[in-house]
């Protein structure tokens, strides 16, 4: 049996860890709720942009939209895809970072299978430090790593990412932009999503705008309260300045920016909730371990007492 | 007219306005009540000046953005 002293030290450290994980759990829960409510604030913006787009498309032949470089895409002999992985700067969040890496692997495998001639090549852009080793292992070159997005990303923080991507896309550096991120479904369920952002599809954009309202829990009741496509019913004669094409470009640019911010914010909420669950498990474990240790401590203490009693009584017997 | 100024972080302004003055890519415009429906791209680093009925004013700066005046006398400004 272990010595009392030894058990006591272990018990103390287990209790300490338990306190820390418990605190982290509570902090993560608060951060998760805050991230959720921040994610909601971009809702008005996306709906307004979608409404403008719906109105605009009424006065523009659909062909104009389909031919826009953001929608039509460009053809290149050796196309390059930029894969943006959105994870975290910090660990201790269960499988959060790992599952993004796994989803990226799955994407590469599937994409390569669809391209038997192997003409497609890939570049990576990372959000968060934690995927650096994955990127190194994958062998793809990393264009840029964005770190310190904070607990809740702000539009200003995400702007360099969006600018870098849209600029590269416009100049033909990449023909396709794919994002691997985490979708926040509920506190207990998040799953990774792999999404093509550019060339964009309108259905995808509408889907993102709808997803801004979470499916379950707080705020979920807002989900059906607003139809993003409710445009102007009466046909009005619009004036477009400088030209309908320029207005379209501007709207599409805003929609892409909105999608990026939203993906990062959702990853934030997922990260906090993944950490909350991981810390909750750690607290439960430390409590169990603490209970076992307390039992063996009591055992050892009792054994010591019994031993002393035996010594005293045997000494008494010997003296008589 | 009903005016809304939105950015990705949320709603910056929401309410009635008597006039809104903005620099767009094709020149400075002042929008009054029942302006004809208009969609326009804002000039970079433009100043948005909103004047309410009671004469009080409000101003925002936008790096880029666009305005959407619809047929229901509602003006929406999306800015960065």
Automatic annotation (TrEMBL), chain A:
GO terms for biological process: proton motive force-driven plasma membrane ATP synthesis. It is found in: Cell membrane; Membrane. Keywords: ATP synthesis, Cell membrane, CF(1), Hydrogen ion transport, Ion transport, Membrane, Transport. GO terms for molecular function: ATP binding; proton-transporting ATP synthase activity, rotational mechanism. InterPro entries: ATP_synth_F1_ATPase_gsu, ATP_synth_F1_gsu. It holds the Pfam family ATP-synt. Signal peptide: none annotated. It is a peripheral membrane protein. SUPFAM superfamilies: ATP synthase (F1-ATPase), gamma subunit. It comes from the Bacteria. GO terms for cellular component: plasma membrane; proton-transporting ATP synthase complex. F-type ATPases have 2 components, CF(1) - the catalytic core - and CF(0) - the membrane proton channel. CF(1) has five subunits: alpha(3), beta(3), gamma(1), delta(1), epsilon(1). CF(0) has three main subunits: a, b and c. PANTHER family: ATP SYNTHASE GAMMA CHAIN, ATP SYNTHASE SUBUNIT GAMMA, MITOCHONDRIAL. Belongs to the ATPase gamma chain family. Produces ATP from ADP in the presence of a proton gradient across the membrane. The gamma chain is believed to be important in regulating ATPase activity and the flow of protons through the CF(0) complex. This is ATP synthase gamma chain. It comes from Candidatus Kaiserbacteria bacterium CG10_big_fil_rev_8_21_14_0_10_56_12.
TrEMBL record, chain B:
Pfam families: ATP-synt_DE_N (PF02823). Residues 1-78 form the ATP synthase F1 complex delta/epsilon subunit N-terminal domain. One of its GO terms (cellular component) is proton-transporting ATP synthase complex. One of its GO terms (biological process) is proton motive force-driven ATP synthesis. Keywords: ATP synthesis, CF(1). InterPro entries: ATP_synth_F1_dsu/esu_N, ATPsynth_dsu/esu_N. This is ATP synthase F1 complex delta/epsilon subunit N-terminal domain-containing protein. It comes from Candidatus Kaiserbacteria bacterium CG10_big_fil_rev_8_21_14_0_10_56_12.
